[in-house]
Design goal:
The structure is a homodimer of 298-residue chains. Chain A is built from eight helices and eleven strands. With 298 residues, chain A is of the alpha+beta class. Chains A and B meet through α1, β2, β3, α3 and β4 of A and α1, β2, β3, α3 and β4 of B.
């Protein structure tokens, strides 16, 4: 256990409301009809980004703004929710940076057709901290959770991993390689809406394919068996970096399970399947994967 | 204009959605019925607190947690909204501080009967930054805004100012004086719900009575004439500190206008009235108040 895990465990005890989903899902799902139904349920998420942790010091704040919006909307995508609006928590920086942030925010709001509803700005010293709350409306009842995968289900991924890793490295090292995937991820909103009625479990891949798959497996009480040869990698990922690419996050593809025989209505890759819980959440090519599975917070 | 004002002006251009209320109100008010009605509208707010800005380094994090919840709920109170839930953005600190934070959060959630729905935690260096999003359900249609005061309306305040100022000074100076008002403010939720159907304009006093009254006046396009002798002060505020107490915030009383002849259904003090806009937002005992009006962000 690390510090963040301890803290979240303590928070969980304060969050018995069913809408909180045990703080174990990408979003809160709030029924506002008062009927217990979740048709038209409100889907809510709040994610933070910190300078030097989630973005490189000196990075273009327009890209940071885009990513702040995109990553929160990716959580909505995992619930098949249609975005409604965002509230921004902003720490003021220097005026040029803040102008770039506004420009990137404008790009993202327009690209994803989402309204800026409110928020707060503060002045502070030290690394800057940003927060965004996104709310959306569920398009399917109930919205998928991480907890519904059944033995026999296929495990699918909407697109390649590793692009954000290469983009980060290009940016960090100042090379000419394309860093778009790291700077300007695109939440799979349309895919999430199309998949919500079909997926037995769904989440977005933010911390790494393997660790996120392990989380889905644990939430569902199954083991996920992944075949590395079936994983789609970004075209720039060299064979020697595939192990890293499975453990790097920030690609924001959707990871989901479908009952055997069901085909996804959107382009996706079948990378494995769920089996009866075998004592471990994850098997990679039939064995327990070595080393860290992904980005561990804290 | 300062940096924060410039930034907010730029943000405002990105927030044309009517629910955003021009980023000039305490909350966003979102109609989810699709009918344009705001009955049962969702009321949303996001406020941040930063170490060294909004709380003293070394302060008990249980009090900080309480205040983070209370100040956001105070924004809901100003809309007559009933709290539904909160999402927390948390920067990890040392383990003891974080345990105290959890304890204070538990106190506040229980005291105000509000659900913890979700959020995010991050690790970061430097002064800690916290964010909270609160959502509530409007109890009256339309929820009061800051913009409805009319000439002739009475100007009212639900309780005394200056208690938080004295509490802050006690804490800062390590004296034995009571610091509760600064550490554990109580949002006027029941008062806000009772007042929402009657108030022509309403807001909470967070940055100082005079500056917040000036904001209400500007939003409404009137001048507010305040009589200093009618302002209720915390019993500990010495005569010589009354000017300061009018300019200090953090008391979280509700400031509101009622049509002439209407009496508030909750205990409140009539501190002035609205007149036709006279070129200045505020008159204090018939004159333009001197000096700073309150806490200016940025």
């Amino acid at each position: 256990m690390n510090k963040e895990a301890d803290f979240i465990a303590a928070l969980r005890a304060l969050a018995p409301h069913p809408a909180a989903r045990g703080l174990a899902d990408d979003c809160a799902v709030l029924d506002l009809t008062g009927t217990g139904a979740t048709s038209g349920a409100l889907v809510l998420t709040h994610d933070m980004m910190v300078e030097g942790v989630h973005w490189l010091p000196g990075q273009d704040m327009a890209d940071v703004a885009w990513k702040l919006v995109a990553t929160n909307l990716s959580d909505l995508a995992a619930k098949g929710a249609a975005p409604v609006g965002v509230l921004l928590g902003f720490t003021l920086g220097d005026a040029d940076d803040d102008r770039r942030f506004i420009a990137g925010l404008a790009d993202a709001l327009a690209a994803f057709d989402v309204a800026l509803l409110g928020g707060d700005t503060v002045a502070a010293t030290g690394p800057r901290s940003l927060g965004l709350t996104a709310l959306g409306r569920a398009t399917h009842t109930p919205p998928p959770s991480r907890a519904g995968a059944q033995p026999g289900d296929g495990l699918w991924l909407t697109g390649p991993v590793g692009g954000a890793m290469l983009g980060y490295e290009a940016l960090r090292d100042g090379t000419a390689a394309d860093s778009t995937a790291f700077r300007r991820p695109v939440p799979r909103l349309a895919e999430g809406i199309a998949l919500a009625p079909l997926a037995s479990a769904m989440m977005d891949v933010s911390d790494g394919l393997l660790i996120d798959a392990a989380r889905l497996a644990q939430a569902s009480g199954v083991t996920l068996s992944i075949e590395s040869g079936a994983i789609p990698f970004h075209h720039g990922v060299h064979l020697s970096r595939r192990d890293d690419a499975m453990r790097w996050g920030d690609d924001y593809e959707l990871l989901f399970t479908l009952p055997a025989g069901v085909s996804p209505p959107v382009p996706a890759f079948r990378i494995g399947h769920a089996i009866v819980h075998s004592g471990r959440p994850l098997l990679l090519d039939g064995a327990v994967p070595h080393g860290r599975l992904g980005y561990m917070h804290g």
